[in-house]
Amino acid sequence: MWRSLQARLAVGLIVSLVAALLLQWLVANSAVEVLLKNNAAKHLEEDAELVLAALRVSPEGVLSIDAARIDPNYLRPFSGHYFRIQSDTLVIRSRSLWDTDLQISTPATSDFIQSETGGPAQQHLLMVMREFHKFDRAIVVSVAEDIEPLYIDARAFQWRYALLAVGILVTLVGLQTWWVRRGLRPLDDIRAELRALEQGALRQLTVTYAPREVQPLVQQINRLLELLQKRLERSRNALGNLAHGLKTPLTALMQQFDQAEISQYPVLKSRLQQHTHTVHQLIERELKRARVVGAALPSGHYDLAAEVESLVQMLRRVYRDKQLDIETRIPRNSACRLDREDLFELLGNLLDNACKWAATRVRLTIEAQPLWTFTVEDDGPGVEQQELDKLTLRGVRVDENTAGHGLGLSIAKDLVEHYGGELLLGRSDELGGFYCSARIPLV
């Protein structure tokens, strides 16, 4: 997954958005709780002043509360609104406290104290204490309110905000994913062009629409393809020159065998002819092997059936004396990705070998799925099983083990292995002769 740019961007985006929204959620919740408590404390402070205003003193100096001027919530038992007035040893409690008292652990030592404490009926109270001077005496007024409803409202806000944050997160991730895919779409186009390049539909990649960051890579790939093409052309030209340069003196050498001086020594002549023929075969084999293009460079599309038909017609003319029945089974509209010269090299060697040993029939079968399979069969004598086992041994050349099935099969085997495939040898079940199947992966 981490090899994907889209996955990396998506994971980084999700992590950053989750962290940002979570931090924002925590800050917002904390701010809401502080705001609610501050508003409640401000309201309690106002109530404390109202309670102080409702305080009366008798001629005898006894403090009392005018109930008509008190909020009814302070008169209803366990209403969640409570007050407590203390002056020296005198304590006046709101009727809502009933027979309980506020839990005051610390007396007022300043003008204002805000704290949270427990209350009647397990209530969670926010309490404000203020010290006033009235009637020539110090009076401490404590006012408390049940803030559990505030916490309920805060939790409801937290859930709503969490759902909103999740919705925002999903929306942003969806938009960002769409935008990332849109931004990486040129890479998908380049990948499609690479696939078309491999299949031979293109010769070079398109640079104009590629992103600025990717254009150097595309240009380097195009330069590499151009360099490989030039090297291939130089290699083939050099091989052609080498073949011409070697064959000319070799032909002249072989013509010397007809001279009278050589004919006087038949044993020497036979040995020289054998060694010269071996050198000729080795030159042909290595030159043909070196001309194999393989999957290194893209090749253009061509009609497989038409190319094979032209090859079959040529073989019929070469072996016209045998009047062979060469049957071909090729799927329609097949576009092969093998280099055209490599295809001719492979099928030419296999069919030529089959025509050489066939009695009357040769069959070529080509299948494109699940891999390219080129099967050639004939009705000739075939090859014995022990000889087939020798042909497939690693390091054993075919031309040195089985006469007639030598150089062509060796070249075909090298070509197939160059494409990452395998060459299977055996006896044909239907025709009874030699069976050879070249299997090459599609990719």
Q: What is the CATH-assigned architecture of the largest domain?
A: 2-Layer Sandwich
Tell me the Rg in angstroms.
49 Å
Largest sheet: 5 strands, antiparallel
How many helical stretches?
9
Which geometry do the CA atoms define?
rod-shaped
Number of strands: 12
By secondary-structure content and strand pairing, the structural class works out as alpha+beta
Residue runs with pLDDT of under 50 for 5 or more positions: 394-405
Work out the helicity level: 40-55%
Strand order of the largest sheet: 4-3-7-6-5
What is the mean predicted local confidence, pLDDT? 79
The CATH class of the largest domain turns out to be Alpha Beta
Please report which band the strand proportion falls in: under 5%, 5-15%, 15-25%, 25-35%, 35-45% or over 45%: 15-25%
SSE pattern, N- to C-terminal: HEEEEEEEHHHHHEHEEHHEE
User: For the terminal residues, how far apart are their CA atoms?
Assistant: 23 Å
- What's the number of structural domains? 3
Quaternary structure annotation: single chain
CATH topology of the largest domain: Beta-Lactamase
